[in-house]
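Exercise: predict the structure of this protein bound to beta-D-glucopyranose.
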Amino acid sequence: MTIETMLDAMSLEDQVHILSGASFWSVEGAGLGTLRVTDGPNGARGGGSLVGGVKSAAFPVGIAIGATWNPELAQKIGQAIAQEVKSKGAHVSLAPTVNIQRSVTNGRNFECYSEDPILTAALAVGYVKGLQGEGISATIKHFAGNESEIERTTMSSDIDERSLREVYLIPFEAAVKEAGTWGIMSSYNRLNGTYTAESEWLLTKVLREDWGYDGIVMSDWFGSRTTAPTVNAGLDLEMPGPTRDRGAKLVQAVKDGLVSRETVRERAANMLRLMARVGSLTDHRAHVEVADDRPEHRALIRRAGAEGAVLLKNDGLLPLSEQRIAVIGPNGAVAQIMGGGSAQLNPHYAVSPLEGLRARGLDVTHAAGCTNHRFEPLLQGVFTAEMYSDRSFGNLAATVPMDSLMAFWFPPMPGGVDPVNFSARIRGTVTTEAGLHRLGVYAAGFAKVFLDGNLIADASEGKWTKGRTFFEEGCDEVVGEVNLTAGAHEILVEFVSKPSDNLAFAAMSVGLGRPMGDAEIAEAARIAADAECAVVFVGRSGEWDTEGSDLQTIRLPGRQDELVAAVLKANANTVIVLQTGGPVEMPWLPQARAVLQAWYPGQEAGNAIADVLYGAEPSGRLAQTFPKLWSHNPTHSQDQEIYPGLNGHVRYEEGVFIGYRHYDKQGIDPLFPFGHGLSYTSFDLSDTVVAAGNGRASVTTTVTNTGARRGATVVQVYVGDPQASVPRPAKELKSFAKLWLDPGESRRITLDLAPRAFAFWQDGWVVEAGEFTVQTGFSAADLRHTATITMGASRLPV
Ligand code: BGC
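Solution:
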């Protein structure tokens, strides 16, 4: 049967039925198999809650893949994640995330690849091809202008068309035209005042008419808010289900003439085409999720971790050969493998740096030195939750076990209770040492936490205020201090749901920790001094780098800068390993001999980091400029004013001048430039020739490994248009190639520059006649060759 004959056989109601979700993660149609989706992009979580759930493989996060500069690797990762999606009984991955790292404080930068559209696009194309080659649909997201999290469900990103076309839309365009993506997710935000889910310009004019897209557009979760406006604009699927604005409302809208039958048929055709592509039309298998821990996925994740690691600084200390080392820092014994939010999953396992280094048979001592958490450490153990179907602990509906005091409640819920109309009493025992403790709670809902019958942390109604947790539905952490005796203590949480602002779920998290102070920093310095070398693991975690909350500073949290300074003073042979989802200020950098940025590299974190410290090539290059200070970033003024929002608008007033384009324009030296990353060997370029003709150009160059070890480098080509009639960046990345070479090996390579590499947007793609610069090198600040070529005028197709 063709899609057309299927549509002919479907009633209006049947067609409408497949334009919204049946459940949180599925779409159903009369007589059709169930279409299932699962979150990404660093794995496939499956249909469970954000916490817990069936285990899955945790791959490196977006910014780590960005730093690999390796589209073939992105493709392999996409392919492996497709296998993970299948293990969760799903057909569609809600990935990749390709918003642009416009600011340094966006909570979701960790999930995105780069500040540069061309690099982002190349990686996205690889990833989408990897997924779809296995028959799993990509859902490239979030279309478009979702470059910050603050008030993201109401905020308008005000972006001029030129900046959209030249920067923010490029990865989506490439995914459509080069990878043939089958799915796109609209963003939560408004674009120039209109919700993207209602933007006919974006979803129909640009996407379908200009780019020729034939896949589906689905809303972000609860990001579709209307009936006729979304359907008419081009939004095929409202998610999640059950429907809020479609179903009977859409049938009525057709009857009232607000939506045409033709439009509904077109949206339904798009949905059927997707179902045919992923094989779900006839997939009537029962939904089964399994944990599929494959050795080949383990190996790929470990390799990708090293490929994304960026060696920022090294005066010869790395790679290490020392056998007696001190592992210092709050991220030493804790595996920081992923960011927070919908990209979270329950990993098969997580290797900490301490474990990874010990597995090499080294003699390792350890001290945390300080904390870097945003919230007190989550309480884990055996707890029992009584769930009541009212908000006053009246009707007991179910009693369920919990293995931590974090809960994420959305339907189906225990006892069938409603996530916005229930209460819960959670009890258990915690065992502590003697001394001062901090008990913290944050919740999307109202919560009181008692220890041994005493109310310690109170976020109940009246005390609760909206904060920056749980996708902006939760309060900031409320902490109570308490002196405890050593031994067991009874804990009780009383939780009462509250009406949701935007997203209909409830959640809570309760943690208990001990304050750390000067003594712990001194102890860490002492241990460092006693070792042959110290490795300090500092950074952030998914509590900071998370969906739903932007950062308020790019200084390392807590007392980590002090800890680093103290250890550097105690032992000059100190390596700093950073794990963050973006740049941080590094006041101690002049004293540090070696700094490695390892991001959140997935479940093999500790092994991959240990590999690099002991000799595996750190072949990552920065996909985002690291500024010396946050105030150097183009969005700084807005970032600061934006809390609580500039009247609901984020103005992209820097236009196309983001990232390295901005630092070039302002003449600001960054801490580490875009494209930067050291190798354990060295490279040179020679005999570089730039040729131009027929509106295209090419760079041919010889790359030589001039050092003594096998290693990798990334050749980068930047184009400038100094004679342009509009302000254009001094240079923009237009092509790159990653190469692995043996010691002494040379390879001659050619990089192509298509006509678009010379164009800017002015009611269409325009190449102006005149001279262009073509610079070739190893980073935005390490350019080894410059040529000037002349191009003729042309207008290019959209
Ligand atoms: C996120 C999406 C995600 C969806 C489903 C939203 O909060 O923005 O990226 O796919 O939730 O979990």
